[in-house]
Amino acid sequence: MFNNQKLKKIKKITVALVFTFCVTLAQAQQDTDNKVQFGARAGVNFSTITGDDFEDPNSRTSFYAGLVAESFISEKFALQGEIFYSGQGFDIEETTFAGVTVSPAVEFQVDYIQVPLLAKIYLIEGLNIHAGPQFGFKINEEVDTDPTGDGGDFDTDRIKDFDFQLAAGAEFKLTSGFFIQARYNYGFSEVVEDSDAHNATFSAGIGFMF
């Protein structure tokens, strides 16, 4: 759970990012006569940690949700900024020996505020591919030894506060304003100091442009 110190940290980061996000988009709208669309998106994350220092842990299933702004440079090309909450981390399943459980399942929870800046190319009407840098700001980190219950949570502080990533995906927009999308994010920053460990997340979800 979030304590008061973490909530204050989340509030400061979110306010700063939202302010920067809005100022940047407002400036972009002033600099071009092309339209700017705003929206929201949400969906499911399947995240894990990759690298030589981790033995392929299982993915953690969580969710993401946030805001979107898309500025069209031309009919086929657009720039998109986003800010969203992203639940990430990984799972370690329980193991058994001779039919007896010898270690419990553990969920390592690492949650971020993510800010991607994407270039979008429309291949046909409604269908685009997109890619760009993504900046992750850690807001929570804990281990849950009882993922299916209410207890078992304890705080840790092993993961770095910032993660630089590359995001790439595909999206299809419906004429009603709804869209569906899938995306893969890979972190180039070391998740833990002096270790070969990187965030990797596949996400899928829906959204709506207002």
From TrEMBL:
Residues 27-191 form the Outer membrane protein beta-barrel domain. InterPro entries: Beta-barrel_OMP_2, OMP/PagP_B-barrel. The keyword Signal applies. Residues 1-28 form the signal peptide. Pfam families: OMP_b-brl_2. Keywords: Signal. This is Porin family protein. It comes from Aquimarina gracilis.
